[in-house]
Task: structure prediction
Amino acid sequence: MDGKKTEMELTAKEKKIVEIIRSTEYGELKIIVQEGQPVRVEEVLKSIQL
Result:
């Protein structure tokens, strides 16, 4: 990156994603995007490492 900061307005859905990420203490989130906009967030419920 060139070090320049660009300000952008977030859509309501983008703001909601930021809230979800910040409220997630740990885990994995999958964000589904259609036509450049987030439409769904999936949270992994169970993962078993062998």
Observations:
- The two ends are 39 Å apart (CA to CA).
- The mean pLDDT is 88.
- The beta strands are 29-34, 37-43.
- The helical segments are 12-23.
